[in-house]
TrEMBL record:
Belongs to the DinB family. This is Damage-inducible protein DinB. Pfam families: DinB (PF05163). GO terms for molecular function: metal ion binding. InterPro entries: DinB, DinB/YfiT-like. It comes from Rhodophyticola porphyridii. The keyword Membrane does not apply. Keywords: Metal-binding.
Length: 176
């Protein structure tokens, strides 16, 4: 794997989050906090979980030193505010991936765990982070369906043939 792969995943992630939040911010009032049979119970808690885990792993990747203190934050109650915070975090992840060289991928980063620090390879941390985001966006997708809100298409990013028009600006940096 090369850094180009992770740069593409970071851009796909930013686009998928923006696309998802476009739907979430336009849905009827009350759906964001409605309880559903799901792991986190609400769209608000699920989306906040994605956001805070992004903060946690980006902090570890950049050696920020905040560690598990990130999890002591308050949830963001309004979808528009969370969309803005997620957009900033997605930009930070893109910048972090853009700043990597191939030689950085096998290097270890320290991740603060409940039982102490853990050493993880940079590429493995990024793979886990992207998988985590995809997994929970899938849960959000299902919750939207349960709420009667048509979920957005989130897999039209990589292939030129069916690339969403909204995805094209994320490719303007020469990663294509």
């Amino acid at each position: 794997m090369s850094v180009a792969y992770f740069r593409s995943l970071a851009r796909n992630n930013a686009w998928a989050n923006a696309t998802l939040f476009e739907t979430v911010c336009a849905m009827p009032k009350g759906v964001y906090h409605r309880e559903f049979p799901s792991f986190f119970g609400t769209l608000a808690r699920t989306l906040n979980h994605i956001y805070e885990v992004d903060l946690y792993y980006i902090d570890a990747l950049l050696g920020g030193g905040k560690g598990r203190a990130i999890f002591r934050r308050e949830d963001i109650d309004e979808p528009l505010a969370l969309a803005g915070a997620q957009r900033e975090t997605d930009a930070a992840l893109i910048a972090a991936c853009d700043g990597l060289a191939d030689a950085d991928l096998p290097r270890s980063v320290t991740v603060e765990r409940p039982d102490g620090p853990s050493q993880e390879r940079t590429d493995h941390l990024l793979l886990h982070l992207f998988q985590h985001q995809i997994h929970h966006r899938g849960q959000v997708h299902a919750l939207l369906s349960q709420a009667g809100v048509t979920p957005p298409q989130l897999d039209e990013f990589f292939l030129v043939w069916d690339r969403a028009e909204t995805a094209k600006p994320y490719w303007k940096d020469g990663t294509e």
